[in-house]
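Have a think about this chain, tokens included, and walk me through the fold.
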Amino acid sequence: MDTIFALASARGRAGVSVVRISGPAAHDAVAKLCGGLPEPRRMGLRRLIWQGEVIDEALVVVFAKGGSFTGEEMAEFNLHGSLAVVARVLRVLSEQPGLRPAEAGEFTRRALENGRLDLSQVEGLADLIDSETEVQRRQALRVMSGELGRRAEAWRGQLVRAAALVEATIDFADEEVPVDVSPEVLAIIDALRVQFSDELAGAVAAERVRDGFEVAILGAPNAGKSTLLNALAGREAAITSEIAGTTRDIIEVRMDIGGLAVTLLDTAGLREAADRIEQVGISRAIDRARLADLRVFLLTEAAETLMVPPEPDDIVVQGKADLTGDPDAVSGVTGQGLDRLLSGISTVLAQRASGAGLLIRERQRIALERARNALDGARGHLRMQDGRAELAAAELRAASHALEILVGRIDAENLLGEIFSSFCIGK
């Protein structure tokens, strides 16, 4: 196997840059530059010398096989973050036999192949790297910690127990089996089905935390929607004017609200319009609003008729407080009521996010749903009591197979290229 190396920190000038090496020749490569190795997992200050020339003075740390991120012999140079220093070290490493630059995500892929991570942990790590908000960070870290893998292993242990009991009745079909195993097997199936259903119920919320919630701002033309969006975003994201119908298409602004990733949508003013282009904008606004996670209705008058009916959690507020003087209204011009509005949005979305489970990818949801469906099949066969033990055992094995897919122990190869292409080189 090749030994790989890469810059693991961000490219460009920095205070410190980290170069990572992993593979069977990692320690030899470090020794050639340093003259000697520090103790494993203990940083040592070393001069990096190549062909009699001092390249840099760096902190060096090495990891023994089985005790590193990848599971292989591994080392890291903590260099002064000069472009010239980094380029020289990478060039020297490339000149050593058996070493080559790493591909995107190759360090993490080796960790997966060497059993240091399962596939769900790799997906959690990818989400952790991409996390924008505090809630996304916590969710990704929870998955990366291996909690889903541990649950899957516990579930699989119960399935193995249930399958063993069922198959015992098959093996001794011609003999008297002193105990009816159906009650115990059905109890295992029912308990697992409840756990699978609970986890699947949290998949939608977990996906919204990962991808972000959408909040649509709705109202009549000139209600102040674009001004409100700009005030919430803290920048001129949307064009504002006194001309009704200025906003024709949907304007999107990504924000962090209460630790959640939220995309605010400024939509076309809702009214009966004769202009063909404005009609298209209004139609798009209504369609997008119906798909949004939350809607904020900005009213111009108390008795205003809404073209889109609010749902129970939607927020309805009076706008243009700077003109009306209403203390309960909001204004994008003066900022009145914005904190209250943000707090209301945050409260609604935080409650929805609180139900998030560990399934952060559609692949994971599908695998667990297959496992639950297989349990339903096994349960049905056992309740028929007409010699369908073989079919019940097959369904239990199918459920166990789905859990193996969930954590990537099988059927993962076709996913790896797509997953690791999102990783940076050096991770």
